[in-house]
Write a structure and sequence with these properties.
The chain is mainly alpha-helical and about 350 residues long. Helices cover about 75% and strands about 0% of the residues. The chain has one domain. It is built from 14 helices and four strands. It has a two-stranded antiparallel sheet. Strands 2-3 form a two-stranded antiparallel sheet. Strand 2 and strand 3 form a beta hairpin. It is globular, with a radius of gyration of 22 Å.
């Protein structure tokens, strides 16, 4: 079964590579391809959820927090570059007279990149390690993260003069002097994003198959036994949560580059819950399944909202209910079961052929 799952993941990666790097660029216009980029940015979050929820048993309903951190930090740099040497327009409208001190370092692109990686890593590790040391887990941890997502969205909305408020940060056109709104630039960013996504997926797959991954799975199944064996389970869980947070932050930064804005709506409760759904649909035990789930749910949202603008949420909710009831472990589990059945039938078919030949 393990060999079949590995073969299934490799096959899925190959199919995704053909789809994302050949079929979609040739078959979609620039506008539609940019929408796909939005879904792929969310796939970074879904991969992190596979690591924490699927293999670590850590259900976080607040990944939008770290997605928003990455998105806002990237937007700050882009906005400062677009408005230089003046203040960003939303600060002027809010009667802010000087650039806030915490904005100043984001004139540097290098500092921005380091912040996108380091800030969510530090915050997530400190927060989660403190929580896991108190042995808070399960639904209680999910509620805590959900509350934090709601709190952050409220703070961002209320700080109009420093974060753009409800509208967020938008209206930027260049990155290091390079136009990022042209079709050519968006295509280059798309290709870079796909390659980064595959690299991240391969890295997480290696982590799952390593000793760290085996211990993480053991913690998910019987944390008390792992703790009694001498392992610091809080450290393992906090590290997994930190990796997922960094992936979410990277996805948020790429989202800002591709979509051209970041707002509190992508940080709050609804977005964080939807990110979990991406992993659930694709399969919470499959890294490439997380990418597939992000694409399928994203396309379903776009199609349903376009043709059923008043009732698309009901269709989407019904789709989720059907998936959970019929294939609770996601589409990847369905594929694994089909491959297992085919593998079981194959020897029988070969044996029947030899009998007929005799």
């Amino acid at each position: 079964m393990k060999d079949l799952r590995t073969a299934s993941e490799i096959s899925t990666y190959i199919l995704l590579a053909v789809l994302l790097l050949v079929i979609l660029p040739l078959g979609l216009d620039a506008y539609r391809l940019n929408i796909v980029s939005k879904y792929l940015a969310l796939a970074f979050v879904a991969i992190g959820i596979v690591l924490t929820w699927g293999y670590g048993g850590i259900l976080s309903l607040g990944q939008g927090i770290f997605f928003g951190i990455g998105g806002y930090l990237m937007a700050m740099f882009l906005k400062l570059e677009a408005s230089a040497p003046e203040l960003p327009d939303f600060m002027v409208w809010s009667s802010v007279e000087a650039l806030p001190a915490w904005w100043v370092p984001y004139h540097s692109f290098a500092f921005t990149i380091v912040s996108i990686l380091a800030l969510p890593a530090v915050l997530s590790f400190i927060f989660s390690y403190a929580i896991f040391r108190k042995r808070v887990s399960g639904v209680y941890f999910a509620i805590v993260t959900l509350s934090l997502a709601l709190t952050l969205a409220t703070i961002l909305t209320g700080a109009q003069g420093q974060t753009g408020g409800f509208n967020g940060i938008t209206d930027f056109n260049t990155l290091m002097g390079i136009d990022i709104i042209s079709d050519e630039s968006k295509f280059v960013l798309y290709v870079i994003q796909v390659l980064m996504l595959f690299a991240v997926g391969a890295l997480v797959s290696l982590m799952i198959r390593s000793r760290f991954g085996k211990v993480l799975i053991a913690i998910r199944d019987r944390e008390d036994r792992v703790r009694f064996s001498g392992y610091d389970t809080a450290m393992f869980k906090a590290f997994a949560f930190m990796v997922a947070a960094v992936l979410s932050s990277i996805g948020g930064a790429l989202y800002t580059l591709q979509v051209g804005l970041i707002a509190p709506s992508v940080v709050g409760v609804m977005s964080s819950v939807e990110m979990v759904i991406y992993a659930a649909v694709g399969g919470r035990l499959s890294v490439p399944g997380a990418i597939v789930g992000s694409l399928l749910v994203g396309f379903a949202r776009s199609y349903l909202s376009e043709y059923f603008p008043e009732s698309w949420l009901f269709f989407l909710g019904g789709l989720f209910i059907v998936v959970v009831m019929v294939i609770p472990n996601g589409l990847s589990d369905l594929v694994d079961r089909l491959l297992a059945r085919i593998a079981a039938l194959w020897p029988a078919a070969r044996k029947a052929e030899r009998s007929m030949a005799q």
